[in-house]
Amino acid sequence: MAGELILIVEDDVNSRKLARDVLHAKGYQTLEAETAEHGLVLAVERIPALVLMDIQLPGMNGIEALKALRSRPATASIPVIAVTASVMTKQQGEIIDAGFDAVERKPISVAGLLSKIRALLDRGPAQPA
Ligand code: MN
């Protein structure tokens, strides 16, 4: 069932609009933040069903933001998809090790992203490791 609230953390205006348009077309509701810091505030206030997290952000990056989400009981089990243009091997390793629920490469595949989102929402909250 669509209609879930999804938080988009993305500093690039075009990438943010694309994600918003794709999600709205599927019936999801969205919240948007241009920085990880603002995203963390929104996540605590609104408890979205899922977060799309850009990795390269001004200030705190997406990996640090994931750790912050996981460290707080209220947001620890929200599924988080990393969205990254990074082709750096070192950072790809960090992204995988950080514990994201899925990774979507930029430029995003609309069908691929929607299917990852749906699968995570249908799975329900992550089980404690
Ligand atoms: Mn970015």
Please render the helix and strand layout as text.
Elements: E1 5-9, H1 13-25, E2 29-33, H2 36-46, E3 50-54, H3 62-71, E4 80-84, H4 89-98, E5 102-105, H5 110-123
Parallel strand pairs: 1-2, 1-3, 3-4, 4-5
Helix pairs in contact: 2-3
Describe the protein in words.
With about 130 residues, this protein is an alpha/beta fold. The chain has a domain at about 1-10 and about 25-80 and about 100-110 and about 120-125: Response regulator (Rossmann fold), CATH 3.40.50.2300. It contains 5 helices and 5 strands. The protein has helices at about 15-25, 35-45, 60-70, 90-100, 110-125; strands at about 5-10, 30-35, 50-55, 80-85, 100-105. Strands 2-1-3-4-5 form a 5-stranded parallel β-sheet, with helices on both faces. Helix 2 (about 35-45) packs parallel to helix 3 (about 60-70). The N and C termini lie far apart (about 25 Å). The model has no long low-confidence stretch (mean pLDDT about 90). Bound molecules: manganese (II) ion (MN). Manganese (II) ion (MN) binds near residues 11, 12, 54, 56 and 57.
